[in-house]
Amino acid sequence: MLLHRNKRRVYEDNAEGSNRNNNENNGGNGSGSGSGKDNRSGNFLLFSAVTIIALLCISYFLRLTGSSSSQEISYNEFITMAESGKVEKIEINSDSIHITPKDNGGTDMVPGTTYYTGLAENVETVTERMLEAGVVVNTKVEDGSSIIISILLTYVLPILIMWGLLSLLFRRMSKGGGGIGPFGVGKTTAKLHGDKDTGITFNEVAGEEEAKESLVEIVDFLHNPDKYADIGAKIPKGALLVGPPGTGKTLLAKAVAGEAKVPFFSLAGSDFIELYVGVGASRVRDLFREAEKNAPCIIFIDEIDAIGRSRDSKYGGGNEEREQTLNQLLSEMDGFDARKGIIILAATNRPEILDKALLRPGRFDRRVIVEEPDLKGRVEILKVHAKNVKMDETVNLEEVGLATVGAVGADLANMINEAAILAVKRGRAFVNQKDMLDAVELVSMGKEKKDRILSKKERKIVSYHEVGHALITALQKNTEPVQKITIVPRTMGTLGYVLSYPEEEKFTQTEKELRAELVSLLGGRAAEDIVFDTVTTGAANDIEKATRIARAMVTRFGMSKKFGLMGLETVESQYLDNRASLNCADETAAMIDEEVMKILKDSYKEAKKLLKENRDIMDKIADYLIQKETITGHEFMEIFCREKGIPMPAKDKGEEALNSLAPKEKEKEPEVITEQIPASPVNDSESDKKETDHTEDDKKDSGTDDKKDDDSKGGSSGDTKSEMEKDLDDMEKRLEEEFRNILKNRSSKKSDEQ
Questions:
Q1: Among residues 259, 274, 332, 466, which one is catalytic?
Q2: pTM
Q3: Average of pLDDT values for 464-488?
Q4: Is there a catalytic annotation at residue 466?
Q5: DSSP calls for 67-100
């Protein structure tokens, strides 16, 4: 029954749109002629009514202005004034006498005011009396031409002016039909790129190859519509671009128009909404009318969720004006013929709240996902934005791409610009690699607050906090290597941070990796508790991140033994804040909180255990960090390996990026290996189970031998130095054979602020 009712509503919308189109097209028929006569007669009656009202208003206005400077008195008062010598002159009209008093006529006379009274006697008697009293007598001589001019100026001219203004107003209101409204309030506000070229092509868009491929057919159709029409194919009427903010949805739409060399109408969803009721629907009609005149063309509606929000009350339905605008948009999208070459592109980052009728085939036939770029995409985007920036030979955009996991096109463009600004501030004519890496940190964490001076106690607390994060990262397996540690405050509220990111592109995370990340996040709080026997507010962000990860493990990832594979949470805003909502009972929600608390307690207990076992190493690294304020991952690993009595692992790609400017001697590497794979952090925990050294090193360094990894249970890394050197030699030989396959799977890494 509900389905039938929905269909009927669509059919009624279509019929209504069809009737409207027929009425517009049949304006020259008999019915149109009759309608024109009715309109003209209605306008005549309206103008007549306006004319009468205008005459009354003019008469009232003249009387009002005249009464302010002239005052009526009785004939007796006039005779008394004349006999007492207060009248200077009079003017006798056919039915009245206008009196001008003397300036010193008395205190009861108002200066600048004239008086008038009725003509109660004949003219000869009045004249005789006034002459006897010494009053100047004037008689008004009627001039026919002056009367006509007075009438024309007083009555006719204002009426003509008002008539002309009203005619112009009504003409503007009815211009173009469709109820545009006065002064074009219902006219579309879309910006038309009239040169049939937006100036942007697909060469200006990088990092979104899949999205570009989805739009190639649209460009080809606009170039060669007959090719598709001959075979009977229909081009999609619309394509919806969906993705996070800053990924280039608007840029892609402009590139489609630029490649096709067709007019491009661009407007935002909020442009349809206005103060007046019905304006949104009127602007939709006018938009499609203008598009038909400029066909083939592209209509791009940015942030379409402003008018395309679902009419269901769950998503804020009930707004009559917005729903009326949406209904008109649905009707227009059904009414136009795609063969004319009108294609609608729309962009949104909230597809879950759009109306289902808007998303069905026949309106938006395609959904193009514009995701965050991977490593290759980030490098290509950096090349596009660096095209017009002067850079020296030290700049390596691939290394910058490795350090910008999670960044979108807008972020990368901002980083390039900030790097150029830093180069100018430092007095250089070219951008170097240090400027690029500093710009990455500037955009990610803010500027350094050089004026904020921490006390010795606070510097020590922050130092141990950050070293706690880094040390646990190095002690665990399945963690990301440390690239930088600093205790220099930043403008985004951080007093210090640990920079770490993986060497490979990761699209999934194992349970072991998530649990290791939880232990690392709580390592800062654990270090404070161990060293100072108290805790501070500095771990607020770490606790928030750890809680979010632990809750996701329980409710979404099925990594809890208590709840198993039950889905307890749903992500509602995938492309904005990843906000999730529970879909379970209150009792279950309380049990979820208990399970999350248990995971966090276990992680915190493990963090304290690892730090207590390596307290001496933590103290030495913290003292070094207090002196230097900022140390690289290489310096951190040197101290760690020296104190543990183990050899230094091979330098990873990210480490080379951060130390590319350091004047250090580099060892010559084997010719077969073009990039070095870092060894995984060493686990010094006595609780791990042991097995053969070859299997352990293979699992830590390559991570690619699945068969051995399944059989492996992990092992202890506390072996003797000679045994580890032998294992490292064996590992190097295996890497020479397997490295080419490993490189194919590497893509990106991310940077987490600790």
A1: 466
A2: 0.62
A3: 91
A4: yes
A5: HHHEEE--HHHHHHHHHTT-EEEEEE-SSEEEEE
